[in-house]
Design brief:
The chain is of the alpha+beta class and about 250 residues long. The chain contains 8 helices and 6 strands; from the N terminus they run αααββββααααββα. Strands 1, 4, 5 and 6 form a 4-stranded antiparallel β-sheet that branches. Strands 2-3 form a two-stranded antiparallel ribbon. α4 runs antiparallel to α6. Bound molecules: zinc ion.
């Protein structure tokens, strides 16, 4: 990646700002073709963003080979990444439209990329599937019952709308059970995995510096990916760190 940043006429070429911008290629860089004054503005932005980041940086989440979502002393081997974007409200109030119903103003957005093991990823996935699994199971059973003609007929004998009522009740029950199952699993999994990202030391540390998660909801769901983001602000591994880890801290399949 480094060898593609070849435009030595750029005022930022070879500077720490260039390393922090961590662009894939010069032609994709916001500093491309800019005069020194404009380039200096970009440098100012990058340095301001970095002044809001923890001193130790955010690369330790993804640069190592161990899972950073595992709790306890034993950390499993990371083999994918959990992405979680965080925004900082300072300083120039650029509008990021987050959803149809929510507009929030962030000056800066950086991705946190948690190296993640197979088990932590599975726990998150199972948790997000829990409500749907409960719905399929219970609604399926209810459908089975009301679709048996003899049973449906005896229900209709009691009241014409009873089969439909049974289905509606099953829908409500499956929703409640799904929520209950989710809560139960979360509490159980939480002993091994940071199931509440807001509880993760790195997210807390970012929070104390004015960052907040961009994902809505009480328990933000990260996006899982096999390959992490390797370019853009917040994705760089400092050179001295990269030399210590194998390769570039990349997880190879
Ligand atoms: Zn893990």
């Amino acid at each position: 990646m480094e060898q593609k940043r070849t435009d030595q006429t750029c005022p930022l070429w070879g500077t720490e700002t260039c390393a922090r911008l961590n662009m894939r290629a010069c032609r994709e860089c916001p500093a491309q073709g800019k005069d020194p004054r404009e380039a200096n503005d970009i440098r100012g932005d990058v340095e301001t963003l970095y002044s809001f980041l923890p001193e130790e940086g955010i690369h330790s989440l993804f640069a190592g080979t161990e899972c950073t979502l595992c709790k306890g002393e034993e950390k499993a081997r990371a083999e994918s990444y959990a992405l979680f974007d965080m925004g900082h409200a300072d300083p120039r109030q650029r509008k990021e439209k987050l959803s149809l119903f929510r507009n929030k103003t962030y000056g800066f957005v950086v991705p946190l990329q948690f190296g993640c093991c197979k088990n932590c990823r599975r726990r998150y996935q199972l948790l997000s599937w829990a409500p749907m699994l409960a719905a399929i199971l219970i609604l399926g059973l209810a459908l089975l019952v009301v679709s048996r003609e003899t049973l449906a007929q005896s229900m209709r004998d009691v009241w014409r709308g009873l089969p439909l009522l049974v289905l509606l009740i099953a829908g409500g029950v499956s929703f409640l059970l799904g929520k209950l199952l989710q809560r139960n699993l979360r509490a159980r999994f939480n002993a091994f995995t940071y199931m509440d990202l807001n509880d993760h030391p790195a997210v807390k540390r970012m929070g104390s510096l004015g960052w907040e998660g961009l994902t809505e909801g009480k328990y933000p769901q990260p996006v899982f990916t096999r390959k992490r983001l390797t370019y853009g602000v917040g994705t760089a591994v400092p050179v001295e760190q990269a030399e210590k880890t194998e390769g570039n801290g990349e997880i190879v399949d």
